[in-house]
Write a structure and sequence with these properties.
Elements lengths: L24 E2 L8 E2 L21 H7 L7 E6 L2 E6 L11 H7 L5 E5 L6 E7 L2 E5 L4 E5 H5 L3 E4 L11 H10 L13 H10 L17 E6 L4 E7 L2 H14 L1 H11 L4 H12 L1
Parallel strand pairs: 2-11
Antiparallel strand pairs: 1-11, 3-4, 3-10, 5-6, 5-9, 6-7, 7-8, 10-11
Helix pairs in contact: 4-5
InterPro entries: LRAT_dom, LRATD1_LRATD2
Protein name: LRAT domain-containing protein
Organism: Oncorhynchus tshawytscha
Length: about 280
């Protein structure tokens, strides 16, 4: 029957090998590296349960969203930076859908965010409409409907690849409308939207051959001097982990790492305090 691959998932960092088993990485100490390789089976956009309690009114969520709990990170392919979320250097402000419509141009990538939920990415194709992967289907909706009450922002600059011409980005997206279930080549809305804009096969399921090496690194930034690194065989595995961090937030990731490294909250907070001072 040939080799069978077991599908693996994880819920906490207790199950995740990390780059430095002894603690947080520092800028001048890389430490031993242990790779991470997972095969994720589900589209995370379908997991709409919250981690912060019962459902809230959509308009209330939109007004209250604050990016202070977002985890900054850098993604490397070998030694090249291919993605960076830096809240200080980039405009990561969020806007209502009405304001977004005044800012968007065809070919833009838009990210909708809400506390405790996975970010949802769409491709703006003009005429107030977007194309996006949602619930295992590529759909064409009005931007206001696709937002589901969340605030959004244009995120063309997060990935460092060269973008395709806007008309090609729109064409890539529109041609996939109606694709669903087993016909899909993308694990989530972010992979689909990024593929439309950059055209790179690495965003697709099976777009890379797993050869035992871990060329991708996700560097999570907790302060100017404190970071932690995970390594991955494929780009889409890394994106799934990054999106999980986006969902649970910086504080929860810090807590998971503290538990994983057998450290107390007081020790972690003391480290942060010392690094800031």
């Amino acid at each position: 029957m040939g080799n069978q691959v077991e599908k693996l998932t994880h819920l906490t960092y207790d199950n995740v090998p990390t780059a430095d088993p002894n603690g947080f990485d520092t800028e001048d100490e890389l430490g031993p590296r242990i790779g991470v390789s997972y095969i994720f089976s589900a589209d995370d956009d379908e997991q709409e349960e919250r981690v912060d309690g019962p459902d809230k009114d959509q308009n209330e969520e939109e007004k209250q969203y604050d990016n202070c709990n977002e985890l900054e990170c850098v993604v490397y392919y070998r030694d090249e930076s291919v993605y960076e979320k830096n809240l200080k250097l980039s405009d990561m402000s969020t806007y209502s859908t009405e304001n977004l419509l005044n800012k968007c141009t065809p070919g833009d990538l838009v990210e909708f965010v809400a506390t405790g939920q996975y970010p949802h990415w769409v491709v703006y194709v003009g005429d107030f409409q977007v194309v996006h992967l949602h619930r295992a289907e590529i759909k064409n909706n009005f931007l206001t409907d696709a937002s589901q009450g969340k605030r959004g922002r244009i995120v063309n600059g997060l990935y460092k690849f060269r973008a395709l011409p806007p008309e090609v980005v729109v064409q890539n997206a529109v041609q996939q409308v109606g694709t669903r279930d087993r016909e899909l080549y993308w694990r989530n809305s972010e992979c689909f939207a990024a593929w439309c804009r950059f055209g790179k096969r690495e965003f697709k399921i099976g777009g890379e051959i797993r050869i035992g090496k871990q060329p991708y690194r996700l560097k999570m930034l907790f302060s100017e001097k404190k970071s932690h690194v995970l390594e991955f065989q494929s780009f889409d595995d890394l994106i799934m982990e990054k999106r999980r961090n986006d969902q649970i937030g910086r504080d929860a990731v810090t807590q998971e790492l503290a538990n994983h490294l057998n450290a107390t909250d007081a020790e972690i907070k003391d480290d942060f305090h010392q690094s800031v001072n």
